[in-house]
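DATA CLASS: polypeptide
GOAL: derive C-alpha cells

***
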Amino acid sequence: MIQITTNNKQVNKAISIAYNDIQSNITDFYNPYIKKNCQVLVAGADYDRPWTRDASINVYNSLCFMNREVSYQTLTSILAYKNNNIVISGQYWDAIIWALGAYQYYLVSQDSSFLLVAYEAICNTLTIREEEEFTKEYGLFRGPAVYGDGSSAYPYTYGYMGKEGSILQFPKHEKEKCYDIGYGIPMHTLSTNAAYVLAYDVVRKMAIILSKDTSQFNRKKTMLKKAIEKHFIYDNNQLKYIVGKYGDSLRQEGLGIALALQAKIIDSKFLNNIYISPSGLPCVYPNYDRYNIKEHYGRHAGTIWPHVQCFFANEAIKVDYDKLFIHEFEKLTSYANRDNQFYEMYHPETGLPYGGLQEHYSVEKLKEFKSCEHQSWSATGYLSLFLYGLAGISIESEYVSFSPCLYNKVTKLKLTNVFIGQCNFDITITGEGSKIILININGEKKDEAKINISKKKSFTVLIIVERE
C-alpha cells in the first residue's frame, strides 16, 4: 500500500486519519457483477453501500493507489445489465462519472481485462443517455448536478417539491414541465455536462488502446464542449450553473468549475472571480433564500463538501493558482486534526461539521441533516491532494510524469510503495515552489520528470524544486 509522509506533523496526522477512515469503510458487499460477496469501499460510516458517484470518485482520488483489488470490486459493484448489455447503474444523470474512476484504475493497474468491460459499460451508458437525456436544441445533457440529488441544490423553479427533498421527485410534482423522453428533468447543469466531456475523452483514450475507431468520440466531445461554451459562459469569464427553458442559474457551482477545468473547457482566468468562504470552496454559492434562517444554509447551497474542495484544489494548482490549493489543503488538514476524522460536509463560516437544511418527506418543515462521519470521499480526496496536487502525478498509458509544487509548510514529501502498472516507485520531493532544479532517477540525473512504465521495474525518484 502506498505510504505518504511529509515534514509537517499536523499534515502527517491528517494523512493517518484519512487512511483510518478509508480502511474502516472497507466491508463485505454483494457484487452483482462478480455474483458474490467481496470487499468494497462504502461511502462512509453512515452508509452501507458504494454509491456510483462515491465509488467512482473514491477510486479516482486515491483508492486505486491503495488497494487494487478493492478498487476493482468497488467499481464493478455498481455495474448492471440492461437488455443484456452491461451498463453503469446509479442515479442516471451523473453515473457517467464512473468513467473517470474506471480509467484511472486502469492506468494504475494496467488491467487489460477490466479495460474491455469498462469500455463496453461506458459506451452502452453513453448511448442510452444520448437517446434519453440529450436536448438537441441545446446540444447538452439534461439532469441535475453531479452529486446534487437533494432539492437544496436548486432554485425554487427546479428544486422545491414541498416536503419531498429529492430532485428525483420533480417529475412527480411538475410533470408538465418535463421532457417526454427519459427522466425528463428540464435542466442542464455545468458539472454533469463537464463530466460527459470527460467521459467522451476517457472512452476515446480507451478506444486508442483497444485499437478501435475514435472518430465518434472526438466529434461528440468537441460538439459538447462548444455547446457548454455557448450556453454556460457569460460576462467577464463567468460560468452559469444551470441552463434550461425554465430559467438559468448564475450561481457558482464549485464542482462544475473544477470539472470544467479538468476537461479543458475553461482556463485559469475563470478562477479570478471565484468566491471562497472562510471554511473553503462552497458546493453552490450563494445560499438560497428559503434556507436563510439564522446561521443556516441549504444542504447543497453554501456548505463545504471536501470532495468538491479536493477536485477544485487539484485543478487550481495545475494552473499555478497555488494559494487556492493551499487554502483548501490547510482547511481540510485542520478539520481532520480537530475532529480526528473526515466529515461529509462543514459549515462555511464556522468550519464545524454541519449537514445543512433541506426539505424532507418525514417533516412538514425544513430538516437539519447530519454531516455524516468518516466519509470516504473526503478522506480519499485529502490523499489525492498529495498525489495529483503536491506531487503532480499524471499517468498516460505508458508513462508517468511529475509536476510537483511544494510550499513553506510542506517542503518535503515522500511517496513510497507507489505501484503503477508493474512498476514500483519511491518518490522524494523537496524544496519550495514548482520550478524543478533537479531530477534524479535511480541515481542518474535526468532532464525531465517522465518515466516509461511499459516494463516491470523499480524506480527511486528524487525531485528538488524552488520558486520561479
